[in-house]
Amino acid sequence: MDITLKVNGATCTGSPEARKTLADFLRDDLSLTGTHVGCEHGVCGACTVILDGRPVRSCLVLAVQAAGSEVTTIEGLATDGGLGPLQQAMWDSHSFQCGFCTPGFVMQATAFLRDHPDADERQIREALSGNICRCTGYQSIIDGVLLAAERTRTGE
Question: Domain holding 29: CATH number?
């Protein structure tokens, strides 16, 4: 089946098998390897992308289901070839260690902060509770999201 979708602002087409996940389509067919595949059961959150404005686990969405949709991946957050504001705040907060879970956390936090720019620590923890990191104690991740929210509010 031929599909067309918009990925990171660009129109993309492909012919994925009916059983191919959106995560695999992004990685294998479009060479967007920033979306990581962890558990393949929708539990870890590493494969989170924004689909039509909502964060979704791309390992649970078939590529054909995304036909006609708009997808943003971690690669789509870059601004002028550099880190996006949330990415920079997380870098400044030393939010990650190995980096495997990073794209999923960043995509989940991006969608959350878009809708809740004044979120407090408790709300951020709850919003990110479905993402798993095996390296950090999570506090540095929360610190990065709080820093991004503060910088957005203050125009920094």
Answer: 3.10.20.30
Q: What is the number of domains present in the chain?
A: 2
Integer-rounded Cα Rg, in Å, for the chain is 15
- Which CATH number fits the domain that encloses residue 149? 1.10.150.120
Q: Are 45 and 21 in contact (CB under 8 A)?
A: no
Beta bridge partners of 55: 50
Whole-prediction pTM: 0.94
43 to 30, 59, 61, 80, 88: CA distances (angstroms): 24, 10, 13, 33, 26
Task: Encode pLDDT of 24-47 as tens digits.
Answer: 999 999 999 999 999 999 999 999
E-strand stretches of the chain = 3-7, 10-14, 48-51, 54-57, 70-72
- Model confidence pLDDT, tens digit, residues 122-132: 999 999 999 99
Range of the domain at 131: 85-154
